[in-house]
User: Fold this.
Amino acid sequence: MRKSLLALAAGLLLAGSVSAASAADKLKVGFIYLGPVGDLGWTYQHELARQALVKELGDKIETTFLENVPEGPDAERSIEQLVRAGNKLIFTTSFGYMDPTLKVAKKYPNVHFEHATGYKRNPNMSTYSAKWYQGRYIQGLIAAKMSKSGVLGYIGSFPIPEVVSGINATVLAAQTINPNIKVKIIWANTWFDPGKEADAAKALIDQGADVIMQHTDSPAAMQIASERGKLAFGQDSEMIKFGPKTQLTSILDTWGPYYIARVKAELDGTWKSEDSWGGLDSHMFAMAPYTNMPDDVKKIAEDAQAAIIAGKLHPFKCPVIGQDGKEIECKGGDHLDDGQILGMNFYVKGIDDKLPGK
Amino acid sequence: MELIEAIILAVLAASTPLLIAATGELVTERSGVLNLGVEGMMIVGAACGFAGAWLTGSIFIGALFGIVAGMLMSLVFALMALGLAVNQVATGLALTILGIGLSGLIGAGFVGERIAPAVHLSIPGLTDIPLIGRVLFGEDAFVYFSLALIISVWWFLYRTRPGLILRACGDNHVSAHALGYPVLRIRTFAVMFGGACAGLAGAYLPLAYTPFFIPGMTAGRGWIALALVVFSSWRPGRLVVGAYLFGAVTILQLHAQGWGVGIPSQFMSALPYLATVIVLVLLSRARTGGSTAPAALGTVFVPDR
Assistant:
């Protein structure tokens, strides 16, 4: 009995080493996720991209992901764990992984890192992000057209530049349709708490908003808008299931093409540290189908999308007037430059609320 | 007028899961057991509750699934912390981690599905009364049940003999044991009651609050319920005050932001915690003074045979 057990164990060991040997030929690619893969939002979209990657290059690579990794110093351990497991290219998919990623990158110069939405780089660490404000601009046009009350409701997560530039882009667009448009902003101070997001949506609707926009991750706001017969925009992913008669469109994070391109570069040995900040033109994100709106509104949205892709329309075209009535310095020629957008910490004129922390 | 009614309705909805979970934990702690696994039991209750409702199409059966799931989770805790006398704090924390993982596993197949939320009571005539109609006669069953529950618990703890014995176990398990009461069995029942309540509170979220399931959707409500029990100094009456106050400030700060009162939102988000802590501390100072924690709370009891 004991002998056969030993033989079995030896056999298993052998099998294990064989599969490890064949795996060694493949490039190992690792992912660090902020939420659970089933969050239907931010992490889910990264997971879809990983699946697309496996579908495209599955015979050459092996992927691993760690989900629910908290942001901050603790993430370092998880990233290092992926390095030790032999991953040669590691995607860390949230802003808060910036410093931990950099630290691990400096420690392992032969491993390549890709950090989402950050600004710190290293010869072996790239950053990538998307110009979501372009999508927000299109949503602003639609919202102003569709709103009967002239009041838009906006659920923000944290008052960081990415979110603030989204609010400003929305308002600037809406003002081109209705100069008197009002936007009510509620900060949830969380990226993910369905209950609180639902409460915020209820509060906005109770205060007269009839189009709800969100920069938080769950479909709760969409669901509430649907229950109350209002309109809403999705976030990160397709949320039309939660509001078949409610969703106007949604900004879809489509990381797939980028991931495939970067892994191909790694396989070819042409990987370089880069800063990729892609917009609608480079397919870093996409707009969900324009639904629940009349054809003329749909046309406005589609025309704006085409103009943005063609480079004819810039959401932050000068002059941009700040809340205090003063014109914002125009550093990018005829529009604000990337640095101004990436560090945006002011509201534009027409928002009668105070930016937290200002 | 309509806005006030809408706010009160939102407050009741936001407070109910906290009240139900905290009621269960209050009974558990009154028996001398500190179960820090409320969050874990809640999230498993949410996953199983949604699964039950989705599979059967019945909110009631979904709620039962949630209750049973929470109870099973609490039995794991009882086995470890009472049966094997493992440290209660560590076991409770482990239960939360287990629950978060387990709920993701159970709920994985249900992410993205929708159900019809729990129906609200509707009595022609009464429900239509302005301002108070929908508040008093237009809630979902969970809201009424949560109030019935806390009243029953108050009556049980202070007006019945078994309630007295349960409190005795929490204050001095050695004496209770010497008097011949089965301390561990009583505590097991108390832990199971806590689990059932946490499971139901968790199930409330996907069944009535936001009718879909997403991993992690309890988002820390279990921890708030735990804190409420402590700050209510283990008294059912104050627990009701605390839970509704917390819900009310949560909703009001959202509305205040919408009105644009110009107070930093970070402060507003902290306000429910601040307000609840201050009011409950003042309440307990005004009446009794000092701590009223069950004396044997969190201590391990191994009966000598």
